[in-house]
Amino acid sequence: MDKLNIETKRLIITELEAGMAQSVYENSQDDDMRRFVPDEVFSSVEEARGALEHLISCYEKGGPLVYPVQTKRGENIGYVQAVPLGKEWEIGYHIAKAHTGNGYATEAVKAFLPVIMSGLGIDKIYGICLAENGASRTVLKKCGFALWF
Questions:
Q1: Strands 126-127, 88-95: parallel, antiparallel or unpaired by DSSP?
Q2: Are strands 76-85 and 126-127 parallel, antiparallel or unpaired?
Q3: Span 114-144, pLDDT tens digits
Q4: Is 60 strand, coil or helix?
Q5: How far apart are CA 30 and CA 5, in angstroms?
Q6: Which of 100-138 are b and which e, b meaning 16 or more Cβ less than 10 Å from the residue's Cβ?
Q7: pTM of the predicted structure, to 2 decimals
Q8: Which terminal Cβ of the chain has fewer Cβ within 10 Å, N or C?
Q9: Which residues of the chain have pLDDT under 50?
Q10: Mean pLDDT rounded to a whole number for the chain
Q11: How far from each other are the two terminal CA atoms of the chain, in whole angstroms?
């Protein structure tokens, strides 16, 4: 797949870089990350840097494919991702707590879905979240996913 670079009205979705370790670490510290995706919470900038190195290498290996979501000002506010589930794929996303409630996750997911699905040559992708994660359920619904429990 070619280097990803998506622009929306307010956001840029591109590839991870090693220099993003500080912002990735900071974005991993909010309560929602701790509650809903604790395996993506980093205990230090160095741990975030190691995870970034691994994730950057995954662009060549086929997944997980994680892409930072940045504002047009260049602030890293979260990520979108496509994660292999055997022969199928799941979409994931997180917007740091300081930036939630602004529609960024919905905007990022809507822009990301057609590009990543085309790049992967797939016509179906799953959105999986915990039932109690109302914000994530809302994003999936706004992006056209059918919700079932």
A1: parallel
A2: unpaired
A3: 999 999 999 999 998 888 888 889 999 999 9
A4: helix
A5: 27
A6: beeebbbbbbebbbebbbeebeeeebebebeeeeeebbe
A7: 0.91
A8: C
A9: none
A10: 92
A11: 33
